[in-house]
Amino acid sequence: LPARNGGKVQLSGMSYDNTVSLSGIQWRHVKFIEDFTPDRSTGRWLMMSDVCKHCVRAACLEACPTGAIIRTEFDTVVIQQDVCNGCRACVSACPFGVIEINPETNTAMKCTLCYDRLQAGLVPACAQACPTQSIQFGPLSELRQRAQQRLEQLHAQGVTQARLYGHDESILGGLNSFYLLLDEPEKYGLPSNPQLPSTRVPAAAALSTATAVVLGLLGLVGLRKQRMDQLAAAAKQGNDGE
């Protein structure tokens, strides 16, 4: 990815987490999560290589008004830079906080899962470079099988909190980039039940309708009171005239 500040290293002051978060420039971020007791006498590190999940039911794709976000022949989700107008609809729609605006181009950017490399028959750069094979690439059926085997190993070793996240259809129809976590999703800053924008529309519409009804009733009450005040004033004037 393009280096900022001429490639000069700038420490964030947040432990070893120097990139802090995903952005329009940093498309992969390794989270260093400190899970310590208040006195820091005991604890552990949780690490997660965060990236776009390339959701089967992608909120960003649903929200994009220009058609800039597409699903590719590899079932990945890509933002076409020549079509994106930087409206930020996808930024607010993504439940994982993956997409941001690139300050250089003023367009939305995120991981493409190395679309150009996939077209050339190559493995994504992150999986190619990972020295521990923590990041793996391949057919989803094979990856799910490997992940399940590893999960069973962890459970046998007493890591009972370990779980898979996004491997099945329960989360946005499935995540094409799914995770093996050592604790609950919230520990990693992941939502336990991410939602599509369209699922929030009925509730919002119902709230808007209810608000309109209440305002309408208040308006009628106000008009009725105004009319009664006018009649009372007219009656008083009539009595004064007598």
TrEMBL record:
PROSITE patterns: 4FE4S_FER_1, 4FE4S_FER_2. The keyword 4Fe-4S applies. Pfam families: Fer4_11. It is found in: Cell envelope. Its main location: other. The keyword 4Fe-4S applies. The chain crosses the membrane at residues 201-223. Residues 43-74, 75-104 form the 4Fe-4S ferredoxin-type domain. It comes from the Bacteria. One of its GO terms (cellular component) is cell envelope. GO terms for molecular function: 4 iron, 4 sulfur cluster binding; metal ion binding. Keywords: 4Fe-4S, Iron, Iron-sulfur, Membrane, Metal-binding, Repeat, Transmembrane, Transmembrane helix. This is 4Fe-4S dicluster domain-containing protein.
